[in-house]
Amino acid sequence: MDKITGKNNDLVKDIKRLISSSKKRREKGLFVLEGARLTFDVLNSLYETELFLITEASYEKYEDKARAMCERAKKAYIISDEVSEKLSDTVNSQGIYALCRMRDTAFEIKEGGRYIVLDNVQDPGNVGAILRTAEALGMDGALIGGGCDIFNPKALRASMGSALRINVVQSDSTADMVKLVKDKGLPVFATTPDKNAESITEADFSSGGACVIGNEANGVSGDIVAVCDGCVTIKMLGNAESLNAASAAAITMWEMLR
Q1: 114 close to 91: Cβ distance less than 8 angstroms
Q2: pLDDT score, position 132
Q3: Residue among 167, 254, 136, 247 nearest 205 (CA)
Q4: What gap in Å lies between CA 232 and CA 190, rounded to an integer?
Q5: Residue 218, Cβ neighbours under 10 Å: how many?
């Protein structure tokens, strides 16, 4: 394998831009994975690997999987610790990276399916945690309108690889995501902290449907509430006014699947 030792290498600079910029990721159709778990997850995914970068120490530690990644990637490099530190988005880098190509993530909304819709959820930790929970519980898919993109490094880490495996589609418009579900004849409900809304425990999802989780600060936007079939809420006995978006989504999805 070729080696990259200088952190001012043009390729290193390009990869760093992809890590830090959602705009660059969309323009290039590429995203970056960091760390052993996420990077080696690509071996069991449908994503094409353009580049694989690894330090000598990590290659020795994960030799079998590293060799498999070298065979899968179009190009592989040994990188210096200095380059790894330049690229890393974590405190303690494992010195393992993959540059992958985005693919068409559109999927067919199925009759009787259950889906979670995100309306301008901004925090990458929330987005990743919601996708992880959605996969764990067996949701049929996630539809993301605006907010943080699923290829944000922090969102990818928080999802523990679920973002690469679950049915997920993303658009700048939550209304478009809601329309995809409603066009299949499934009801869509906005979640709200309003105690007068229908309790999520009483809502009927036996024939499928979707729930919308709103922005951390403002909740589900009024325009989206207007096109939903109703509102549901998680009844709370304590004094907190609302739940964290990821926590609310987890409870909502659990109740939808009961």
Answers
A1: no
A2: 98
A3: 254
A4: 6
A5: 10
